[in-house]
Amino acid sequence: xxxxxxxxxxxxxxxxxxxxxxxxxxxxxxxxxxxxxxxxxxxxxxxxxxxxxxxxxxxxxxxxxxxxxxxxxxxxxxxxxxxxxxxxxxxxxxxxxxxxxxxxxxxxxxxxxxxxxxxxxxxxxxxxxxxxxxxxxxxxxxxxxxxxxxxxxxxxxxxxxxxxxxxxxxxxxxxxxxxxxxxxxxxxxxxxxxxxxxxxxxxxxxxxxxxxxxxxxxxxxxxxxxxxxxxxxxxxxxxxxxxxxxxxxxxxxxxxxxxxxxxxxxxxxxxxxxxxxxxxxxxxxxxxxxxxxxxxxxxxxxxxxxxxxxxxxxxxxxxxxxxxxxxxxxxxxxxxxxxxxxxxxxxxxxxxxxxxxxxxxxxxxxxxxxxxxxxxxxxxxxxxxxxxxxxxxxxxxxxxxxxxxxxxxxxxxxxxxxxxxxxxxxxxxxxxxxxxxxxxxxx
Length: 443
What we know:
Blueprint: E1 3-6, E2 27-28, E3 34-38, E4 48-49, E5 56-57, E6 62-65, E7 74-75, E8 80-89, E9 95-103, H1 124-133, H2 146-149, E10 160-165, H3 174-181, H4 183-197, E11 201-207, H5 211-221, E12 227-232, H6 241-249, E13 264-268, H7 269-280, E14 287-293, E15 301-306, H8 311-317, E16 327-330, E17 337-339, E18 352-356, H9 358-361, H10 374-378, H11 385-393, H12 397-402, H13 413-417, H14 424-442
Parallel strand pairs: 1-12, 2-15, 10-11, 10-13, 11-12, 14-18
Antiparallel strand pairs: 3-9, 4-6, 5-8, 6-7, 8-9, 14-15, 16-17, 16-18
């Protein structure tokens, strides 16, 4: 197979620390005695609980139905008894209605979990329905319901489906493991999505530091000329959808627009593998591959764990802490969300947990801007972060808007590269929030 090479303009090279978990054998997490399954593990509206305290449930049984078009089904990851349906702490900081299940440790499979037939015999609408009923969402962290992405926007034509295998976030190697060991599932899932959307061209983009993954995917593709494989330059944020689109099909998503404006849609490789499981096994999204890493973890590992399992228990599966972590992040250090406690549930969207030492997490005190322009030179969307941040600090959000603050993808490259260690992204986020709030008031 002919492998193409490409990248995008800009970006940075933070320490990846992927060697902590890359290439290691998968650890099967210890079966949880209790799972806490939030009704919000996707973008959009929370699901509505279908069970109550005292109900008995089985593995793969639907326990939450979607409310509205942008929502997703939620399924039980264990068999056992529902012991509570109540608000519980969510990794995003708020309390979300959750179904708490005490496992009977039998993992009794729900009767309706069965293969859905050959891909060739399934219609596009049937594929979409299978994806929806499996509760599949974006597995790369965005968590957008996949069946919605498989529904083209009115007036838009999708010509390209791109699978994101870049995994550019430091520490995380979950996608790498999936591609190395389940390449056939990744390719099957892509073919299913192409059939569902009537798309003739598919693409898979993988950073060039993942040579084993490139080899595995290439082998799985065989002589399939409808799918192209791209070896992408290793840099951050290569895995962002707009940068992938530019690198792979050479088109730029317009300011304020979406990928559909250039006829493309991007999915994560983990999402493709989940679609494969849903079609070939009938298994809804009840578990995922997750990276537990960072200098504070005794044995950093890639785990297979049930949705709703306690993160603190997953860390114990990795030997616990080698030292007290200074920061625990849900996700990677560039875009993840800091947690004040590991006592939170594993979500469908949880790509990894980064437990950082004081040395890894330490950020020097910010100094005055020296107008070096580095933040502008590496910005993937060609903004002027120094000006947006300065106007934000001065409360001049109209100026921030004129400097296209809303186009910021919040990758954090500007804060990372700044020699004065200014918290540029934090200021830009404030500006974005204020611009959006003001526009709502005007309406």
